[in-house]
Design brief:
The protein is α/β, with parallel strands linked by helices. The chain has a domain at about 150-280: 3-Layer(aba) Sandwich (Rossmann fold), CATH 3.40.50.2300. The protein is about 40% helix and about 20% strand. It is built from 12 helices and 19 strands. The strands form 5 sheets. Strands 7-6-8-9-10-14-15 form a 7-stranded mixed β-sheet, with helices on both faces. Strands 2-1-3-4-5 form a 5-stranded parallel β-sheet, sandwiched between helices. A 3-stranded antiparallel β-sheet has the order 17-18-19, with no helix packed on it. Helix 9 (about 260-265) links the parallel strand 9 (about 255) and strand 10. Helix 3 (about 80-95) packs parallel to helix 4. It is globular and about 65 Å long. It starts with a helix and ends in a 5-residue tail after the last strand.
Length: about 425
């Protein structure tokens, strides 16, 4: 019996030591969540962002890691399923114990994640342009707000003499809210309702013949017409193909897009699209030493000399580097300490400037408008002289024009400057 007990005791001790070793090993890494769709309708866009994060983490580990520890990526696939984004976020924070999450593309996925990161006090770095009207204490918006993309794009088209406007979008929160802002903005500039056409299609929409025909008809009224596109995901490919099929050139009806980048263009014949526009904050074609180095690293990492770069990739670069600096400054991965430390942090962007994290959890960005080229690249035709501060709340919506966000002085993402009250989040 003593022998049995001794054996059991030895086994328990060995198991305990093994568990202790596992715990130590786990504590020796800082886990980073990567929350991007690797399947479903958004996979074409989001897989690239997953690869970007793996490259950045690998690069940081080669520099010695962070706080003396290696970074460990934890990759999950929410599969373009919006409720699954919330589920995977809960898994990343509660089970995997990640220190930060880099992810989402669409606003509907971010809206799904938002209550979870707030409940569990996690950190999300969101890298894609969005509709504004939000500032969460647990989210850092490294993509563009409407004043950093949509509004400047409309201003540019107005300078070209545009009088009629087609607001075409995918049917979810980003296009609907952005188009609400743009419709209000256009009317403030004297555009009449009959000169604004609004159309929404579901994710993955493929039958564009009728809609493009309607756009063509709308543009034949004798007034210069342009399309402002908030179409997202893989629906862009058939949309642009149909524009070409129906002979809609940039000279006749220019299209400016906020969700078409080099990645999407790499999969289609771009010849019919030459001259159409994209409004982003980064293009692969931008000439700067930082961008040249980034492209070289990216193509080496992917072992593909033809692999393109795009705007949300740059947003992840900026967000990741800001997070690294904030962790080093705070000497901790604690959410509250990092969130406090990151405000005011500056990091080089890839276009030659320096972006800063603002108290409203948005960053400063240059605004670029480019023309699509025959080779699938986008050539800049206009840019802001300096960097534009992201505005969380639009000046062109009655419910938000008096709202501001400030997580330093006001400790609020939804502060009414008239009533002097913090109302919390608006969903």
């Amino acid at each position: 019996m003593k022998t049995i007990l001794k054996t059991l005791s030895s086994g328990v001790i060995a198991a305990t030591l093994a568990m202790s070793s596992i715990t130590v090993q786990a504590a020796d890494t800082i886990k980073v969540g990567i929350l991007h769709s690797l399947s479903g309708t958004m996979a074409i866009s989001e897989t690239t962002l997953k690869d970007t994060m793996l490259m950045l983490i690998d690069e940081q580990n080669k520099k010695g890691g962070l706080l003396g520890k290696k970074l460990e990526p934890v990759v999950v696939d929410p599969a373009s399923n919006w409720p699954l984004f919330a589920e995977k976020t809960r898994q990343l924070i509660q089970k995997d114990k990640v220190s930060a999450i880099f992810g989402c593309w669409t606003s509907v996925s971010r809206k799904s994640v938002l209550p979870v990161v707030e409940e569990l006090n996690g950190l999300l770095f969101y890298p894609v342009q969005y509709e504004g009207e939000e500032s969460s204490k647990n989210i850092f918006y490294t993509g563009a707000a409407p004043n950093q993309q949509a509004i400047p794009a409309v201003d540019y088209l107005m300078k070209l003499g545009t009088k009629r406007w087609v607001l075409a979008g995918t049917d979810y929160v980003y296009p609907r809210t952005t188009n609400k802002i743009l419709e209000s903005y256009l009317k403030s500039k004297g555009v009449k309702q009959e000169d604004i056409m609004i159309n929404y299609t579901p994710f993955g929409h493929s039958d564009w013949q009728g809609i493009v025909s309607d756009i063509k008809k709308f543009g034949s009224a004798g007034k210069k017409t342009a399309v402002v596109s908030t179409i997202n995901g893989d629906a862009n490919v058939p949309f642009y193909k149909e524009l070409g099929n129906q002979g809609i050139s940039a000279e006749k009806i220019p299209v400016v897009a906020f969700s078409v980048g080099e990645e999407e263009l790499s999969g289609i014949d771009t010849k019919p699209l030459v001259g159409h526009l994209a409004a982003w904050n980064y293009f692969m074609s931008e000439k700067s030493p930082a961008n040249a180095a980034f492209i070289k690293k990216w193509q080496a990492f992917t072992k593909n000399p033809k692999r393109v770069t795009n705007d949300p990739m740059e947003a992840h670069v900026i967000g990741f580097n800001m997070w690294v600096q904030a962790v080093e400054k705070a000497k901790s991965t604690d959410t509250d300490k990092v969130a406090a430390a990151i405000i005011g942090i500056k990091t080089p962007n890839l276009t030659g400037g320096v972006s800063e994290m603002l108290p409203n959890h948005h960053i400063t960005k240059p605004v670029l408008i480019g023309e699509i080229q025959g080779n699938g690249q986008i050539s800049t035709v206009w840019k802001t002289k300096g960097l534009v501060a992201g505005d969380a709340w639009s000046d062109f919506l009655p419910d938000s024009k008096n709202i501001t966000a400030d997580w330093v002085k006001l400790k609020c993402g939804n502060y009414n400057m008239v009533t002097k009250k913090c109302s919390g989040q608006v969903f």
